[in-house]
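Archive maintenance. Older records in this collection stored only the sequence; we are now back-filling the structure field for every entry so that each record is complete. The fields below show one back-filled record exactly as it appears after the update. Entries are processed alphabetically, and Putative MFS family arabinose efflux permease is next in the queue.

ARCHIVE ENTRY
Title: Putative MFS family arabinose efflux permease
Organism field: Melaminivora alkalimesophila
Length field: 404
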Amino acid sequence: MTTPSAASSPASLERRNLGLLVAAQSLGGASPPIIISLGGLVGQMLSSTPTASTLPVSLYQLGLALSTLPAAWLMQRIGRRMAYALGALMGMLSGLVAAWGIARSDFVLFCLGTTLAGFYGACVQSYRFAATDAVADTAHQAKAISRVMVGGLVAAIIGPQVVIWTRDALPATPFAGSFYSQAALALLALPLLLALRLPAMPRKVEGHGRPLAEIARTPQFIIAATAGVVSYGLMAFLMTAAPMAMVGHGHGVGEAALGIQWHVLAMFGPSFFTGHLIARFGKRAVTALGLVLIAASGVLALLGLGLLHFWGALVLLGVGWNFGFIGATALLTECYRPAERAKVQALNDFLVFGTVAVASFGSGQLLHTVGWNGINVGMLPLVAVALALLAAGALRERRARAGA
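Back-filled structure field:
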C-alpha cells in the first residue's frame, strides 16, 4: 500500500528541483550583468586601443555561443548535475582570472577571464531545459520554464548591486572586487547544483533517434529556433545600442542606465505569469504576442527621440523578449524525442547565442552607420518573417487536424 508521503514524493522532488534551479539561476544569472556593466570600463582602463574596450564583453558572448555544444555533450555524458557543477567551477575560475588580469593590468588576461565565463553562461542558459526534465507532466513544462526564468529577475537585482557594493572594495585595483564577487557567487551556486536530482539523460540514441540535420529541417524546429533567434538576437542588439543612442541624442548616462534597469525588470518580471498565459492561450499565441511587442518597441522608438520614447521602447522590448523567448523555448520541446533532446537543445542555443555574439560585435558599428532609426526600421522585417512562420505552422496544424 502506498503511503501519503510516498505518493507525494514525486511532486515534492519536482518542487525541490525547481526551487534549486531558481536559486542557481539567481546566482549564475548575476554574472553577465557584472561582466556587461564593467567589461567596457575595465577594457578602457587596460587596453591601449580605444576601439578594443568592449572586446571583453563581446568575447563573453562568443564564449557562451561556442560553449553550448560542448556543454550539451558533457550533460549527455556525465549528466546535467555534474556538468552544471563543472560550469560553476568554471564561473569561479573566470572571475578569479579576470580579477587577476586587473591586478596585473593585463588586458589579454582579463579577456581570457570573461571568455571563460561563457561556459558557465551556457550552463546557466540550459537551466530552463533542466526545468522541463524536472516535471513529469509535459503540460506543466511551460510553467516550469517560466518559474526558473524568475531567477533572472533576482539575478538582475543581484548583479548590479554587487557592482555597486564591490567595485571600489580594493582601491589599488578598481573593479577587481566585483570579479572576485562573481567567483564567490559561482561558489555559492555549487552546492545547490550538486543537490539536484534530475532524471538521467539518455547517453545514446536507442533506435528512435533521428539525425540532427533531419530534425533541423522540420517545420517545428525551424519555427521554434527562428522565434528564439529573433526574440533574443533583437533584444540583445537593441539593448546594447540603446544606451549609446540615448547619450548620442542628448540624454544623460544616468538616464540611460535607468532605462536599461527598467528594461531588465521588464524582461524577467512577466515570468511570474508567462507560463499561465501559455497554458491558457497556447505556445504559439504567446510567442507571437512577444514578437508583436518587440515590433511595437521599434515603432515607438521611431516616433521620437525623447526620454519616454527610449524608456517605453526598452520596456516593450523586455516584455516582448520574455513572451517570445519563453514561448519559443516551450515550442522547442515539441521538436524532439527524449533521446534527442540534448543535441537539439544545444543546436538551438548555439543558433540563439551565436546570433547574440554577432549582435554584440556589430551593434556599435551599425548604430554609427545607419543610426538608431535605421536599426529599428531594419528589425521589423525580421519580426515579420518569424510571425509568418508561426502563422504558417498554425495553419498547417489546423489543416492536419481537419484532415484527421
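Update note: DSSP finds 14 helices and no strands in the chain. The longest helix spans residues 341-403.
Entry marked complete.
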